[in-house]
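Marked as duplicate of an earlier ticket. Keeping the data here for the record.
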Amino acid sequence: MRFLFLLPLLALMACAPSPASHDRTTQRAGTYTGSMPPMKQFGPAHVSPPTRSNREIAQDFLDLSFQMETGETLPFMTRFDGPVTVRTNGSVPATLSYDLNALLSRLRKEAGIDIRRVSPTKPANISVSMVPGRQFKHLRPTAACFVVPGVSNWNEYRRLRHDSITNWKTLRKRTRMAIFIPDNVSPQEVRDCLNEELAQALGPLNDLFRLPDSIFNDDNYHSILTGFDMLVLRAYYAPELHNGTTRQQAAATLPRILARLNPAGNFASGRAPVSETPKNWEAAIRQTINPAKSHAARRAAAMRAVTIARNHGWADVRTGFSLHKLGRLTLAQDAGLARSAFHEALSIFRGRPEMRLQAAQITMQLAAISLSDGDAQIAINQANSSLPALLQAQDAVTLSMVLMIKAEALDLQNHTAEAREVRLDSLGWARYAFGSKKAALDRLAGIAALTPK
């Protein structure tokens, strides 16, 4: 299940220099109301293959496949037998249809899964429904979207949500699933939900905070299926595995499966086993992303998460994520601490190739700080360095904001024409990332407010 995640803009706005600067940039943003560029969308994804050893990947596969997000264990695997069909229920936006077709194509090519789309009038193994936002929030207030077994539409789910048919632990094999997405979210959020929930409908049900290169992680850094994710799904549907396979049986078979599917992983340098993530760290992190908590409570939770990570001696994605959260939640109160946290997180993320996206997202935060300091060229350099990873990961949210920062920095250098082109580019991505024209312009005004008067 994908959880709600607060956008980076909230932290960036905290370091805006003055109300007067905000007035100036709101006027500039307003000039685009009559000439907004068309929405941009990504082309085919080009993800990198996993760089970790097959031994590590096998352990990740087992922990993903035989445990649920609640911590409950699963006695055996379940999956679809034979070809898998997907349909959409009711009216869906054009962007959903485009992104769903692209995702199904990837699953066929990269994961080797026989999956195709069918007409909405035909029965299907997996049904995708857009649900009125208010109804969705009433039943699942903390979820961004979710997948449920045993039903095909929202009315069935409402009627049967407490029935054993919708309980993952009662499954013996997968035949019918429903994915629910609220109808008031942006095109990118819809696409992100399709990636995560369709992956869970097909394969593993768990998320692991320790994974640096996967959508099966509640830190939400990755929003499309990665090379690691596709390898896991390909292994999940390997002929050696089947409905009823136990963890012990899978553990015995996985080395042979991964050696065949990922021969490079046989020679990848192994790292020390990653320690289990303690419950107190997970609880702290979940509090930092809980919008129902006060800012002070979330900030204190981020400090606890960093302390726990350091006490365990981690130097992985969990520590970097803790520091990222601490930086964002302390920027308004203690800019020095926030900068230090961002830089420490960046040093962790830069240490491993599978964390390029995390490094790019931290670099966006630092570029915003450089812009607010008036360091235009540094902001431009930081923005440029983050663009390749953001484009590869198809992260339009961060990409659009990085381009907005770059445009403001170019304006500071009096490169007006180039700034205008970059700003228009950013708005095209912002329309996909944030949805409405107003939402895109609000982000533009927010970034412009960082610029020194």
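See parent ticket for discussion. The first helix runs from residue 9 to 13.
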